[in-house]
Amino acid sequence: MISKIKLKELAAYRLQKRCDEEAVFVVEGPKMAAEAIASGASIRTVCATREWMLANGEWRMASGEFYEVSQTELERLSGQKNPNQVWMLVERRMENGKQRAEDGKLVLALDHIQDPGNMGTLMRTADWFGVRHIVCSHDTVGCFNPKVVQATMGAIFRTWVEYVDLPQWLASCGMPVYGASLHGEPLKADNKLHRQGVLLIGNESRGISPEAMAAVTHPVLIPNLGGTAESLNASVAAGILIYELMR
Amino acid sequence: MISKIKLKELAAYRLQKRCDEEAVFVVEGPKMAAEAIASGASIRTVCATREWMLANGEWRMASGEFYEVSQTELERLSGQKNPNQVWMLVERRMENGKQRAEDGKLVLALDHIQDPGNMGTLMRTADWFGVRHIVCSHDTVGCFNPKVVQATMGAIFRTWVEYVDLPQWLASCGMPVYGASLHGEPLKADNKLHRQGVLLIGNESRGISPEAMAAVTHPVLIPNLGGTAESLNASVAAGILIYELMR
User: Fold this and answer.
1) How does pLDDT run across B160-169, given as a tens digit for each residue?
2) Residue A158: its chain B contacts at CB < 8 A?
């Protein structure tokens, strides 16, 4: 059971500003809740239906609040169209993420990625290939945006996402910077890329900004074999380039 | 100017059923409108703001209706949150698509893809690599769904999408069938794949169905280098596999 006052208090976390102020983020649905638990994240509050509680009875919160809610109450908390069983408030704990970042491996750099679905998919793809460190321009969508969190499919708990002055960061990182560009070199076995370096992906419409492009040491191109399409989706392009860089 | 009666008549095409009955689809925004015009598609109706008409003054409709509309009227027609300048009703003309399909090249097969954004991105990725023929299970989202159309970024005009009994089609296609599977062989230079064949991508949650999997001759795997993520996004996985098959 949850009181009306408590429900109202928690519903306020639908506002991103409120989450930012307290350095928490919202996690929803059984899949993401299981990822949060498995990651050892610090879970502040759980609101769940009886269905979820029965299926997850073996799990006891070490700390934090727990409330059983009805479907209607869950809808009040959730920003989703069809909220699914469980809603959690999780601490951001960026420092833990920093400890997980590995030096000398591929870093993914994002220049003004706008779409939350793309951002989450980029994090998910990086996670798949073991790329744990993601550096973003300040105008890239926030990684704790609820739509981003859901699209990561758990990668939010395993990647370290930093927001920086990107052109400056790239210029001083001391690593080769591979930038996806229409004027780059096609990826081929004979210009094999290195594992150590930065892969830079640009905005969905405008690509890499001129300021960030100035720091690119290796412009790379995915061959446009069809010859008719203007571009690839940013997460698909990143997936192909990470695959090529890591293989 | 558009009459209230005409506006009401056209607003009915927000219903997918109405579009299906008349074999038309809705195209929105200047980018997609330009693609429709460039493709030579048969455009039945155009509703556009003065802004779009002024910027596209050189273009005259060979046939079809043309209406100038206000932003409010455009919002009435559109299924989008922020409709942008132009709304079009375009004939499906599947036969033209069929003529564009090329025998003997890579075919993309989709088994129960549900998300319209994924579907559109899959079509866009195929288009980039020159894969023009896409074969879908009947339970895959319709390629003329407005969200799919927008996510294709124009590929809707350049790809031939068929809906079939997929397990039967795969079993009788006479080509090698590469299926993305967790039990496949990693893609490597030494097990180089062929250009001619079918690449099969499964449902976002459940992967390839057992019925379709029975027709897979070459199960393939994208190495999970991170070791923590459960899966890749369906369009990202397809992008990497098409890239590998076509290179």
Assistant:
1) 999 999 999 9
2) 226, 228-229
pLDDT at position A204 over 70: yes
Given A28, A58, A92, which residue is the final one in a domain? Answer: A92
- Residue A135 pLDDT more than 90? yes
For the ranges A99-103, A155-159, B35-39, the lowest mean pLDDT is seen at A99-103
Rounded to a whole number, what is the distance in Å from the CA of B110 to chain A's nearest CA?
A: 17
* % of chain A beyond a pLDDT of 90: 70
Least CB-CB distance to A235: which of B158, B233, B244? B233
Residue contact B127–A240, C-beta within 8 A: no
**Contact call for residues A106 and A135 (beta carbons, < 8 A):** no
Q: Are residues A12 and A123 in the same domain?
A: no
Residues B119 and B142 reside in one and the same domain:
yes
Of B189, B227, B236, the CB nearest to A235: B236
Total domains in chain B come to 2
SS3 for B185? strand
Percentages (nearest 5) of helix, strand, coil residues in chain B:
40, 25, 40
Query: What pLDDT sits at residue B99?
Result: 46
Rounded CA-CA distance A75/A73 in Å is 5
CATH number of the domain to which B140 belongs: 3.40.1280.10
The per-residue pLDDT of chain A, averaged, comes to 89
Nearest CA to CA, how far is B149 from chain A (Å)? 14
Could you give the CA distance from residue B114 to residue B243 in angstroms, rounded to a whole number?
A: 23
- Domain span at B114: 96-246
Q: What are the chain B neighbours of A243 within 8 Å (beta carbons)? A: 222, 240, 243-244
**A72-94 pLDDT, tens digit each:** 999 999 988 889 999 999 999 75
B186 and B226 both lie in a single domain: yes
This complex has an ipTM of 0.89
- Mark whether A152 and A101 lie in a shared domain: yes
Instruction: Report the chain B residue with the minimal C-alpha distance to residue A117.
Output: B117
Beta bridge partners of residue A177, listed in sequence order: A198
> Tokens 């039945």, residue?
B44
Q: Are B229 and A131 inside 8 Å of each other by CB?
A: no
